[in-house]
Specification:
The protein has nine helices and five strands; from the N terminus they run αααβββββαααααα. InterPro entries: DNA_brk_join_enz (IPR011010), Integrase-like_cat_sf (IPR013762), Integrase_catalytic (IPR002104), Tyrosine_recombinase_XerCD (IPR050090).
């Protein structure tokens, strides 16, 4: 499984900004949609005010035709939260499409269509992606690897494995863990470091408090000369941090 870094993903999205399928690739890169799910998106599947997107079907190439069919699995039917970047891109796409419509006409149908107004062929989506990758001079990956990259970046951002499972529409968290087993050890080390840093910060705060209390005790008891007979001076507890 080959995936891009966050920097490489950003470079691709920047270089493909003016391409008609830019928003489709953006949704795959950020939400981990399958190509058939992204190509089959309809305007009725998206609520930009609520910032959600529903995956309820997909499109596939079959015998030279692009056909609408059920999602890959039951768990592939899902509702995904949209980030601010995706919402902004979808609003711009919607505004552009509305400008092409007669006044008062409702925006319906598929987000990404060919010249005949039919859903974009997944095969063409893959072909166009390959050309854009070459033009951007980025390491070659498959379009499906862009979906893998979305999951890897989500995990690297600190999102829970269960969240990534739901985002991808996997039937089992075991499948998600098995698929991204190369990513998880790195994240486990990051989590371990974060825990250690938390403890060390607490230790530093404790050490500062002890030193502060020690200074207060010194001022309170005074110098050895002015202390009452029998009084003892508290010693500061030292902590190595």
């Amino acid at each position: 499984m080959a995936v891009w870094t966050a920097t490489q993903t950003a470079a691709f999205l920047e270089s493909s900004y003016d391409h008609p399928l830019h928003v489709l690739y953006l949704l795959v890169a950020l939400l981990g949609l399958r190509r058939g799910e992204a190509a089959g998106l309809r305007w009725c599947d998206i609520d930009l005010d609520a910032r959600v997107l529903q995956v309820s079907h997909q499109v596939q190439d079959h015998n030279g035709l692009t056909v609408v069919c059920p999602p890959k699995t039951e768990s592939s039917v899902r509702v995904l939260a949209l980030d601010s970047i995706s919402v902004s891109a979808l609003r711009s796409l919607r505004a552009e499409r509305r400008r092409r419509l007669p006044a008062g006409a409702a925006l319906t149908g598929f987000l990404f269509v060919n010249r005949c107004g039919n859903p974009m062929s997944p095969g063409y989506v893959t072909h166009a992606f390959g050309k854009l990758v070459a033009e951007a001079d980025l390491p070659p990956i498959r379009l499906h690897d862009l979906r893998h990259g979305a999951a890897s970046l989500s995990l690297a951002a600190g999102n829970d494995l269960k969240v990534v499972q739901v985002m991808l529409g996997h039937s089992s968290i075991v499948l998600t863990a098995d698929t991204y087993t190369s990513v998880l050890p790195c994240l486990a080390h990051q989590a371990a470091e974060a825990t250690a840093n938390l403890v060390m910060k607490a230790a530093r705060r404790t050490a500062k408090k002890v030193r502060r209390d020690s200074r207060k005790a010194t001022r309170h008891y005074g110098t050895k000369k002015n202390r009452r007979p029998g009084s003892t001076r508290k010693s500061a507890h030292k902590i190595r941090v």
